[in-house]
Amino acid sequence: MDELEVNNGRVSLLNLVDSTNVAQHHVEGVVETLLRLDGNLHIVNGEIIDCRYLDSIAEEVDEMLQESGIIQLSDLHKQFGLDSSFLVPQLERRVGESNIIHGLIDKDDRGTIFTSAYIARQTALVRGVLGAITRPTPLPKLVSEHSLDERKIKVIGQGLLKSGRISGVFIGSGNKAQYIPNIQSRVQDLWIERFFKSNHFVDYESARRLGIKAAESYVINKFPDAIRLNTCVVSSMILENVEAEVEESIEGSSWFDIMTVIPSQCTLEDAESALNYLNGFLSEIKFSATLLNDRYIVSKGFILSCQETFSQLMSIKAKQVSATSPKMASVKSLLHDDYLEDDQPQSKKIKGRRGKKGALAHAHDHDTANDRKKDSKRRRGKSGKKLREEEDFEYSSKESPTTSFLSVCEIFDFLKEKYVGCEDDMLESISTLIHQPLTKAYHGVLEEIWQKGKIIAAYFFGP
User: Fold this and answer.
1) Phi and psi torsions of 8, nearest 5°
2) Domain residue spans in the chain?
3) pLDDT by residue (tens digit) across 412-432?
């Protein structure tokens, strides 16, 4: 016991053997007896430690605690050279406002001791920081910027929420933990209301970026009178603008893209949904405009103007095709060039002749025509029917050298060059739409040319 006194309550067995010159087994036997008799003695890793030494450690720990405000007991084992399993319970017994270590043991982490002053300072800091923020903020960011205790901020914050000192909610854990103040909800409401008032729409993605949970439901419930689309809600004013643009396009024989009026965040699905709300209006204008690609409303006047741009090309191509037709070639070979000049009947040419020579010429031409008719009749006989079929000129679209005016791709290329400001996909749809009417009109032009040839042939060769 004297050796313990000399060594301030901590001495190793080896030192006792050296200092007393007693065999080690005798020293160990005495120590075992003392341990049974005195509960204040402990043997740890070959060392005898009494309560006086542990009290001195506790006093030293208290000095450190009062200076820093918080201590992790598990960090002290290296400083004092004792196992944590022994040291921590011994120090915990000495913690208390009326004990050696003037502090409190953390209920959530019993290896942590802090002072009342430390908790008061942290509470004031946490209350000030959490009360000042106006948007969702990660807790690790608050800890680093304001020197907060990352182990206590959430605990202190929860206590402040229960007492009503702050208003908000903690979400997540660890590095993903956040604090969302209730004022954020008021800020969110105000922002959403102002945005809708200024732009006549609110998209769900913007609400999500504000940190609003279930953003779509929130926006829909916030504006029950708004028109619901796939990605946003819009006011009725936007659809009224669509109607006005459509009516203007019809009056101006033009076209209108609904994507230019609805918000830029909208998709083609949104455009289709918006048009569904305008079914009644679209039914009223169905004879004046056509909906293409679920976004373009094209007036019938614009479509007609697209068709009319092909009139000159159609006439030129029909004359070229007729000129190379085998039947028209037969007509030209049988008729003198005079009879086909400027597509005028022979009687009109003769009518311009005057005097005796003119009359004789007329008579000669008339006799020549009669002779040709007689010659044609003489050629009829047993094989006359066959000859008649070869020389008969039946001009119909079924016998036309080409059944199509232009392909859809050719029509598109022509329109793209003509209407530079139009969207390609719209012109493609118009090309498909007018392909059949153009082909029908082309056949009509061919039929007209061939019928003229038929009339001329009948005049010279008879019916």
Assistant:
1) 60, 30
2) 2-104, 117-184, 200-299, 309-461
3) 999 999 998 899 999 999 999
